[in-house]
Amino acid sequence: MKYLDKYISTHNVVExxxxxxxxxxxxxxxxxxNGEYKIIYTSASFAEVMEPACNLxxxxxxxxxxxxxxxxxxxxLSKNKFGATEQYTDEQHISFQPANPLDDMSDEAIxxxxxxxxxxxxxxxxxxxx
Length: 130
What we know:
The protein is mostly helical. The chain is built from five helices and two strands, in the order H-E-E-H-H-H-H. It has helices at 2-10, 28-34, 46-65, 72-79, 107-115, and strands at 12-16, 23-27. It has a two-stranded antiparallel ribbon with strand order 1-2. The longest helix is centred in the middle third of the chain and has 20 residues, at 46-65.
């Protein structure tokens, strides 16, 4: 806030007077007091500040891709929207699948294993083989 106050107190505005055709100097504080100017507090995100630079880099890279022998890097950048998306990333997804022990067991061993399971209902009779 002190930087804004310092700016207001030290800077002036030069405007042309339409009736006389001469330049007239006003202080910013006078403009604020008259209600011609008002202070608006806003905040900008990093993405908003960097958007013009990213657009320029995208344009340059896309234009260079037309004349490149191997344009894989510009193609990858454009697919990733030059860093603005997480849809395309350089990741490896590895999943482990457990071996199914039922594949190696005989039918009798599977039936015995099923009989040895605890019952869901209390007092239910022992399971019988089908």
